[in-house]
Amino acid sequence: MANLTTLLTTLISANHILHYHSIVDAYGHVSVRHPDDASHFIMSGNRAPALVSSPDDFVTYQVSNASAVEPDAPKGYIERYIHSEIYKRFVDVNCVVHAHAPDVLPYATSGVPLRPVFHLPGFLGTEVPVWDIETIYNETDKHDMLVRNERQGGSLAGMFVAPENQTAEPATSAPDRRVVLMRKHGFTTWGPDIETAVFRAVFTATNARVQTDSALLRNAFGGMSGSGMSMDAWEDADGQDALYNNDFEPLTAEQAAAAQSSNDGTIDRPWGLWVAEVEANPLYKNNG
């Protein structure tokens, strides 16, 4: 992992990139594990991601209980337990992103499963689980959908483990799942580094948008049968109309795994573009 100074500069850029791509707005957050002390993690204090501009904007927290290392630390995000519990459970996680991207939210509320529909979000795999905080509320919990304590954060972290590995010994050092949807709330993803976590956040939203548009297009196209634009009209001379009549078909497990393997080696390409985009926008300041 990079040294602390470089890492904080990158973390500032991550905040800006996530805002630029409408993954976060005034809400949502990204954190990184401390490069010199794995029992600590770093994230912005309670401010909008687009306005993070300096290392002074960050707070260092204990992984053990999400408490600030410094007693006089500024106010932090309520939901820092999302981050602390994922770092606590998985030693290979070095960055966590939590967001409420509008493109993704329908899949956290509608019961329609989110699946990878093209190669770049192959990291989604064959299943994107939905975690429901309402199933673990106790009589004293505030029912505001926010992850407010270690118990709730630990439950969310557990959803990143596939059912067959829940009791594995030793416990898995990295999550089986790259993204977990949070019912009526948003989603959380992670990475071995900042760049990968941001890539996954951006392309989770892109995939959701493409999947939604595909469903809308399919329904609209199917509704054209009475207007002279039936499916049969698209049949070519060889009768090859299967491409227009097939059912929804996400990536297979093999395709998703192969795509992720290929994409993981190219993340520096979009990252370089995204950094240039936010550096050119006067809203964002990076004094790292």
From TrEMBL:
Lineage: superkingdom: Eukaryota
One Gene Ontology cellular component: cytosol
One GO MF term: metal ion binding
Q: Which organism does this sequence originate in? A: Knufia fluminis
One GO process term, biological-process aspect? pentose catabolic process
Keyword annotations: Lyase, Metal-binding
- Which Pfam families does this chain map to? Aldolase_II (PF00596)
Instruction: Give the Class II aldolase/adducin N-terminal domain ranges.
Output: 9-212
The residue stretches assigned to a coiled coil in this entry are: none
Q: What is this protein called?
A: Class II aldolase/adducin N-terminal domain-containing protein
